[in-house]
Design goal:
The structure holds two protein chains of two kinds.
Chain A lengths: L14 H14 L3 E2 L26 E10 L15 E10 L5 H11 L9 E5 L2 E3 L4 E10 L2 E12 L2 E2 L5 E6 H9 L20 H19 L2 H20 L14 H20 L5 H22 L11
Parallel strand pairs in A: 1-2
Antiparallel strand pairs in A: 2-3, 3-9, 4-6, 5-6, 6-7, 7-8, 7-9
Helix pairs in contact in A: 5-6, 5-7, 6-7
Chain B lengths: L2 E8 L4 H21 L6 E7 L2 E7 L8 E9 L4 H11 L7 E5 L2 E10 L4 H14 L20 E10 L2 E4 L3 E2 L2 E4 L1 E3 L8 E3 L3 H10 L6 H17 L4 E2 L3 H8 L6 E6 L9 H12 L2 E4 L6 E8 L8 H32 L1 H6 L4 E3 L3 E2 H19 L3 H10 L7 H5 L6 H9 L4 H9 L14 H20 L13 H14 L12 H12 L4 H24 L5 H8 L7 H15 L2 H24 L15 H22 L3 H9 L2 H10 L7 H19 L10
Parallel strand pairs in B: 7-10
Antiparallel strand pairs in B: 1-3, 1-7, 2-3, 4-6, 5-6, 7-8, 9-10, 11-12, 13-15, 14-16, 15-16, 17-18
Helix pairs in contact in B: 1-3, 5-6, 7-8, 10-11, 10-15, 10-17, 11-14, 11-15, 13-14, 14-15, 15-16, 15-17, 15-18, 16-18, 19-20, 20-23, 21-24, 21-25, 22-23, 22-24, 22-25
Classes of the chains: A alpha+beta, B alpha+beta.
Chain lengths: 314, 701
């Protein structure tokens, strides 16, 4: 099937061009363009630039690409659009501006979607993350029946009411790009410009890793070790948060919300790995999710006691 | 008289909430206006994905003046009481009037309230409406604290009369009311000024917004059916989907597209569900083959290429979705054909309830119970057991994991693919039924056996662990399960003693073995408790069919009351009987006889139950009653034997005239003790005979 967009002007030519255009667009709209968080996460929401920064009273605007891992979605690179490692593009603006929908639509135009030719719809989709103790209301955005983004007004994160409210946009980059570029199989998608001297497809970059990780995720990962790592991360997170606020060495008030949150992220990813290995029963599942949520909440509690969480010395 | 137009313009409102929200807007605003004295001629409410609108016509320009008289404390009452009264009435002491009352002199206040202009009242009512609007889920946005379903952008509030239109001054959390709205998000996004409801509807239409959801739905349905008809096809009707889709668009444009050849072999329900759930497409059927061959999607705009790009995009998405569905279907078929029982085994890891064990354990219990029930419902026990074992297998299939609403149906397809007997495959689908009062009841014996076993296991299980429904809480849908059993029994005329050896007893034995808790004593208590739950559900069920509670109680008091078919047969006959003249009078006669007997028995300390002899009869009426009772007894006993309650009650009816005549002519408490006792024993024959049919003492006259 050829691209439904190929007749239109201004169409990007590669996966990376779509990312670059989004970066440029949101930079121009005033967001701090951040880099991916350097840990394994299940979604862009886990980046502290979203989870933690959506808490407290301070204004915030950030945009970034986040590599995301969902071990159970691995298909050895064979499924046309399922991957265990993929990219999300994430935008978080606090407080949510009144024209956020228009800003969002502008980003679709920026990547070559002509609003005069397509049918864009905001379809109810309430978002909830049991592991983050977070929920919000919003939509999934459809372009010609295809879900291209999630649009959420955060109401609660880590058990705290969001005040002010953050507006969050999440684009599933591969799916969106496949649509814009008219590609049917993710591995066939041009990664860089197809006319570049060394033209690379998504498959050139990621087919091998999808195979390797699928095998490891499903069959090889040592579950005893993973379980131990989970327990270690959980214990470390708690231990960090139990420390006195005032650092005995510097005498400064240093609450270690971020290091603790790293451990919560780790625990969450380890849980996902254990899940992919099929060693977590249905009943246990809820219990594990509850344990990760408890960590996320404790980190949120800690963050709102820090300066960026809006805490101010009396 | 002025007209009022209100529009609350927001980001996209979930489709499922729109209709209710429009109705709520109308109710809250008009109730508030009327309460403040502002009556109106008519009102109508509307919704689109981005707006709720209300038009109120023929509104009073101002509320009428009111005068209220209020009685205060007595003259000379404590100063505090008087102060309180003045404060409450909003008057000063000089305004009070003293009147003579029965108990002395009392203060009276006359409170005059001048009428208020409509705009003032509207502003108050609308603000209160917005602040307390009953959205099922609402949210905050930005830095504000106002709650709405999604961010609220503007309020339009215009009062118009012959003189022109004015904006009602009003502000809610920084959003000031005005006379502007916006058209279609993409096709006509500019601001539009409006002066009245008619003006609003016309200008919106010009700006590519159809205000009425009904009109949008009609338009969609008409265009869709026309497009299908033109190709000799028909759209599969789906009112819920139509309403939802009408709530997703302001300017509906119907597009019909093809389903790729590769997918036409999928079961039609799978195509339909996948297209509906994921894409909100209507299915288009070929009436000749019955297969789903095309789809209809509804876009929210017109385009220069007449929707070609939009349709191509939708088709592409559908292709990916159906590829998934096909993948699931083919994988599932492979498993089903090789060994469908592995799916049931896999359910070992699925907990049904932590006290009642896994799904697999539950299936084992249902299989055993289905065997017990099978002979009673005319099913083959082996087939019933086999069906129970496979009925929930599809819960492990990929298709049902993806589309839980296809459970049962997929079970049937997969059981057929596995080459299982037709009755077994049918039970996979039918055993969940009836799911509600309007769902059809299975009639195929194997399906009936498994459906009953499934529900009885659920009920006895939750009774055994004491998780009964309380008040409005029924998280495990146990009332529905009990009603399901009741309908299965009644509509198939199943004769089963629920509390006995084919139902509760083995079911409780099995769940108690699983829970390892209840003692002997408890089992019988729990059994009785569950039966009385069934009786309560049955009463509600029969009441809807016009049978009174007391009539059912009269039948519940009879032996064999856990045989619901028998119970209902009796109750129906009794209910019909009591609606006749004979029935009503016989009931009076029975009550009179029973009362006289009860008094005499209490006084004499004996029970009159035997020995009435016609030779002591003194009057013709007495002798006639003896004869009538002899005749009725002769008819009733065999009728009861055959459970022919209509005949038994017909025979009872023949007693009416002799009993009436007897009471008319005969004094029961005769001077002669022999005669008196004989008459009391005669009355006792009436009592015994009537009670053998139903406990008439429970029936209210």
């Amino acid at each position: 099937m050829t691209s439904v967009l190929s007749q239109e002007r201004n169409t990007p030519r590669s996966f990376q061009e779509i990312i670059l255009r989004l970066q440029a667009y949101w930079a121009e709209k005033g967001c701090a363009v951040m880099q991916p968080y350097d840990m394994e996460v299940g979604a862009g929401t886990f980046h502290p630039a979203t989870t933690l920064r959506s808490l407290g009273s301070k204004a915030w605007a950030a945009a970034y690409v986040q590599p995301s891992r969902r071990p159970t979605d691995g298909r050895y690179g064979e499924n046309p659009n399922r991957l265990q490692h993929y990219y999300q593009y994430q935008v978080l603006i606090k407080p949510s501006p009144p024209e956020l929908q228009e800003l969002y639509l502008g980003s679709l135009e920026a990547i070559g979607i002509n609003m005069d030719m397509h049918d864009i719809r905001f379809v109810e989709d309430d978002w909830e993350s049991p592991t983050l103790g977070a929920w919000g209301l919003g939509w999934e955005v459809w372009c010609d029946g295809m879900e291209v983004s999630q649009f959420t007004y955060f109401q609660q994160v880590g058990g705290h009411d969001c005040q002010p409210v953050s507006g969050e946009l999440t684009y599933g980059l591969e799916r969106l790009a496949m649509y814009v570029l008219g590609v049917d199989h993710v591995m066939d998608m041009p990664y860089n410009d197809p006319d570049a001297p060394i033209a690379l497809t998504y498959g050139d970059v990621f087919r091998q890793t999808e195979q390797e990780y699928s095998r490891w995720n499903f069959d090889v990962a040592n579950t005893d070790n993973l379980l131990q790592h989970f327990l270690d991360a959980e214990a470390e997170c708690k231990a960090i948060l139990e420390q006195e606020a005032v650092d005995p060495k510097t005498g400064k008030r240093i609450i270690m919300a971020h290091p603790a949150y790293d451990q919560a992220i780790k625990a969450s990813h380890l849980f996902n790995l254990l899940d992919a290995r099929g060693v977590i029963s249905v009943t246990e599942r809820q219990a594990y999710i509850g344990r990760v949520r408890a960590l996320s909440k404790a980190c949120a509690d800690a963050f709102v006691q820090t300066e960026a969480g809006g805490w101010a010395a009396e | 008289m002025p007209d009022l137009l209100i529009e609350l313009f927001s980001e996209e409102i979930p489709a499922r909430m729109q209709t209710r929200a429009a109705a709520d807007l109308k109710k809250l605003v008009t109730d508030g206006l009327v309460e403040a004295g502002l009556t109106y001629a008519s009102a109508g409410a509307f919704s689109t994905p981005r707006r709720l609108a209300l038009s109120v016509e023929g509104l009073l320009a101002e509320s009428p003046d009111t005068v209220e008289e209020r009685k205060g404390p007595k003259v000379g009452a404590p100063e505090k009481a008087l102060e309180g009264f003045l404060r409450g009435a909003g008057v000063s002491k000089d305004d009070l009037e003293i009147r003579d009352d029965k108990k002395g002199q009392v203060y009276y206040a006359t409170i005059k309230k001048p009428g208020r202009p409509a705009a003032e009242i509207i502003a108050e009512v609308l603000e209160a409406t917005i602040r307390k609007f009953p959205w099922p889920k609402s949210m905050r946005w930005g830095a504000g604290s106002l709650k709405w379903v999604r961010p609220l952008h503007s309020i339009l509030c215009v009062l118009s009369d012959e003189a022109g239109a004015t904006v009602v001054p009003l502000e809610v959390d920084g959003i000031a009311a005005g006379d502007e709205t916006r058209g279609h998000r993409f096709m006509a996004p500019d601001a539009i000024k409006v002066t009245s409801f008619d003006d609003y509807v016309v200008k919106l239409k010009a700006a590519k917004v159809v205000l009425s959801a009904e009109e949008r739905a009609e338009h969609i349905w008409a265009d869709a059916t026309n497009a299908a008809f033109a190709q000799g096809l028909e759209v599969v009707e789906d009112k819920g989907l139509l309403a939802e889709v009408a709530g997703l668009v302001e300017w509906p444009v119907v597009l019909m597209g093809d389903i790729a050849e590769d997918f036409l072999e999928l079961p039609p329900e799978v195509l339909q569900t996948s297209m509906k759930e994921h894409q909100k497409f209507f299915s288009v059927r070929d009436p000749k083959s019955g297969g789903i061959v095309k789809f209809v999607t509804v876009a929210n705009r017109e385009t220069a290429d007449n929707g070609a790009t939009i349709l191509a995009g939708n088709q592409k998405v559908l292709f990916a979705r159906l590829s998934d569905a096909k993948f699931f279907w083919e994988n599932d078929l492979r498993v089903a054909k090789s060994d469908i029982s592995q799916w049931t085994k896999a359910l070992e890891n699925v907990t049904f309830h932590n006290k009642l064990g896994s799904q697999t354990a539950r299936i084992e219990r249902i299989a055993q119970l289905a065997r017990e029930i099978a002979p009673v419902v005319g099913a083959d026990a082996d087939q019933a057991e086999q069906a129970a074992r496979v009925a929930k297998a599809d819960l492990s299939s990929e298709m049902v994991y993806e589309f839980p609403e296809l459970q049962g149906l997929m079970g049937r397809y997969y059981a057929e693919a596995a080459g299982l007997p037709k009755a077994v495959a049918a039970a996979c689908e039918a055993h969940y039924s009836p799911l509600g009062p309007s769902d059809t009841v299975p009639t195929e014996p194997v399906s009936v056996a498994v459906a009953m076993a499934d529900k009885l296991d659920t009920l006895t299980g939750f009774w055994a662990i004491d998780e009964k429904p309380t008040g409005s809480k029924d998280p495990f849908a146990l009332r529905r399960a009990a009603l399901g059993v009741i309908r299965l029994v009644l509509e198939n005329d199943v004769r089963i003693n629920l509390a006995g050896a084919n139902a509760f007893e083995p079911a409780f034995a099995a769940v108690n073995a699983a829970v390892a808790e209840a003692s002997e004593q408890e089992v019988s208590e729990v059994n009785a408790n569950l039966l009385s739950f069934f009786h309560d559900r049955l009463k509600t069920y029969l009441k809807d069919q016009g049978i009174r509670f007391d009539v059912i109680d009269a039948c519940l008091a009879m032996p064999g009351n856990d045989d619901l078919s028998l119970l209902v047969k009796r109750a129906t006959a009794l209910s019909d009987f009591l609606k006749t003249d004979d029935g009503e009078n016989l009931l009076q006669g029975f009550k009179r006889a029973a009362n006289i007997l009860a008094q005499a028995e209490e006084k004499d300390g004996v029970e009159y139950s035997y020995g009435a002899d016609v030779k002591y009869a003194e009057t013709d009426e007495e002798r006639a009653l003896f004869a009538a009772l002899d005749a009725a007894e002769k008819d009733i006993a065999p009728a009861m034997e055959k459970e022919d309650f209509v005949a038994a009650m017909g025979a009872m009816a023949s007693l009416r005239a002799p009993i009436d005549a007897f009471f008319e002519a005969v004094q029961v408490n005769a001077d002669s003790q022999v005669v008196r006792r004989n008459r009391l024993n005669l009355l006792s024959r009436i009592r015994t005979l009537c009670l053998s049919v139903a406990d008439l003492s429970k029936v209210e006259s």
